[in-house]
Design goal:
Blueprint: H1 3-21, H2 33-41, H3 57-72, H4 84-99, H5 110-140, H6 147-172, H7 177-181, E1 190-191, H8 193-196, H9 209-222, E2 229-230, H10 233-261
Amino acid sequence: MNAQENVIKAESDSAEGTDLDSADPDGTDPVDPEAVADEEESPLPAWLRRTEGEQRWSVTVALLAAIVIQWFLPTRLSIHPRWLMPGLELLLMAALLVVNPHRHIAKSGNRVRVLGLLLAAAVSLANGWSAVMLVRDLLHGSQGITPVQLLLTGSGIWITNIIAFSLWYWEWDRGGPIARAGGVHQHPDFLFPQMQQEGIARPDWEPYYIDYLYVAFTNATSFSPTDTMPLSRWAKMLMLSQSTISLLTLALVIARAVGVLQ
């Protein structure tokens, strides 16, 4: 069963529910037992129905990794004062914990979504600034930097770029994690393999942050989608932007490192 068939089934189930509600209250229009049995045997996949959502631990780990990388980048590549962006990101993470003390995202509210988007923007801004400063140094030359330092710095920015784009994918696909847990939007922005064929995943499978992190990683390494396809225009433009940034960063860093070695 592909994604389109799942959506059609969700709409037909909704129509069937309306017909049952309008049936004769005296029970003169009995329900077909075979139809009920078929419906129980093949429920909607979890990514199309309301669920309790995922826990935030994986997102928290990724954000902490991005903050640590930003802190250890050279001072000339950071927004001044150096503690500003890491401190802002930690403050936003603390605000998320205060606003949303629940374990599961489905119990969150609109304030959590706003804070999540601000956090993704802060990580992207800090890493974007570092990437621009690094490109400037690479193009104009930098004295006293070894190939190892250059590769470590470029790798840190490249990894943080993956985390930043994974946050955007996670926050925007089908309206974000809260909307996905509520089953609000039926049409996906990213088509995962588990959505295309029935039986290759557990019935309770739904995309979590780790899935979006994997999409961001494969897009940064192959410079194109792999097993997960972008469907909406914004998803395609985001993946295009990530591939371009990743390609330029790797090409300039490797070329400069080779030049320093020679």
